[in-house]
Amino acid sequence: MLSRFKACLVGAVVGDCIGSNFEGLLAVKLSDVVNSVLKLEECNQQAQEKEEAGPSPKYFYTDDTAMARSVAASLLDKKHFDARDMADRFATEYFNDPDRGYGGSVVTVFENLKDPDLIDVFRPASMQFGGRGSFGNGGAMRIAPAALFAFHDNDLAKLKVLVSSITRITHTHHLAINGAILQAFAVDQSLRQQQQPVDADEFIDSLISKMKPVEEESSAGKTPADNTREKKDGHPTPYCYKLLKIKELLKNRDLHVEDVVNELGNDVSAFGSVPAAVFSFLKAATQNIPELNGRNKFEQTVLYAIGLGGDTDTIATMAAAIAGALYGMEQIPKAWQIYCEGVEDAERAAEELFKLGSL
């Protein structure tokens, strides 16, 4: 289990680092993604042959990892969710290192969080977009440490509250919050998965059973305008709808990337990226991907996720967190670990989060 804790956070880092090389591209060739990691592996091989350390790192993390590090640090330091501490860490991290690809709306939140007279740290995010809040994937991309922190409690209600609280510091739209909850539930479920290969239908059915009451609760009292973005054939529980779509897509043996993107999305919204990450994990877990023959299941998850294009770093970091939680450190190539920035810190944080369970 310690190996799986480590691989969850380390996997998220390498997914972010490798995926960032393709961020924003609408069409990504899987062969180009494979070539990007071949460069890392060749560098590592050459360094080994010369018995020297290669230049490290070669690929750098983005705001996905920067914010996940703050989540982990705050939870480890306080041993519980402390809104002020976490908000301060988010803002401090940004102002110390702003060139990590942060979105403009969240930067506005950070600027407001630095106000010494601010009493309610949730207020800046709640005021965005006319009071509806951001529906971006910024909560989901950083949430893996929260799933590890809450793992030993084995209490989904507590995990839901924790995830919602962490997300609302920057994103208050229900789609952003529920997307982060889905991502955390998927990581938790993957950590608890005992058998391989994974049964995709069982995995999805379990997620639906957990997400349905979450979505039904959050839909109470919404206005028609609130429902506009997530409406899909009038489905009242949009994330559950997309989970059902994942089932359908996995049964299509003539599936093209365009089909996946059209149904699940690949953009910066939580609704348009978290389902794609879950799909990438299950696609690699349950099927052979011909273009990735010779790659293990973790590698296939990351490479396939990046191949969807769009918000590649975030989709890959989320998919990799789910996959790492199942497969463990043994499946993360050494070259990826050596040449991706932030791996050692992620491994150390995961070990400390694991130890919390024994306190």
Automatic annotation (TrEMBL):
Q: Name one Pfam family in it.
A: ADP_ribosyl_GH
Q: Which reaction does it catalyse?
A: alpha-NAD(+) + H2O = ADP-D-ribose + nicotinamide + H(+)
Needed co-factor(s): Mg(2+)
What superkingdom heads the lineage? Eukaryota
Listed under GO biological process in this entry are: DNA repair; peptidyl-serine ADP-deribosylation
* UniProt KW Metal-binding keyword: yes
| Positions of the UniProt region annotated as Disordered | 214-234
Which key words tag this protein in UniProt?
Chromosome, Cytoplasm, DNA damage, DNA repair, Hydrolase, Magnesium, Metal-binding, Mitochondrion, Nucleus
Could you list the residue ranges that cross the membrane? Answer: none
> EC?
3.2.1.143
Kindly indicate whether the keyword rRNA-binding belongs to this entry.
no
The record ties this protein, via InterPro entries, to: ADP-ribosylglycohydrolase, Ribosyl_crysJ1, Ribosyl_crysJ1_sf
Q: GO molecular function terms here?
A: metal ion binding; poly(ADP-ribose) glycohydrolase activity
- Note on how the cofactor is bound: Binds 2 magnesium ions per subunit.
Q: What broad class of enzyme is this?
A: hydrolase
Q: Which residues bind Mg(2+)?
A: T62, D63, D64, D311, D313, T314
Q: Which GO terms describe its cellular component?
A: chromosome; mitochondrial matrix; nucleus
The record, for SUPFAM superfamilies, names: ADP-ribosylglycohydrolase
Q: Where would you find this protein in the cell?
A: Chromosome; Cytoplasm; Mitochondrion matrix; Nucleus
Recorded hits in PANTHER family, A to Z, give: ADP-RIBOSYLGLYCOHYDROLASE (PTHR16222), ADP-RIBOSYLHYDROLASE ARH3 (PTHR16222:SF24)
Self-association and partners: Monomer.
Family in the record: Belongs to the ADP-ribosylglycohydrolase family.
Protein name, per record: ADP-ribosylhydrolase ARH3
Originating organism:
Candidula unifasciata
What is the taxonomic lineage of the source species? Answer: Eukaryota, Metazoa, Spiralia, Lophotrochozoa, Mollusca
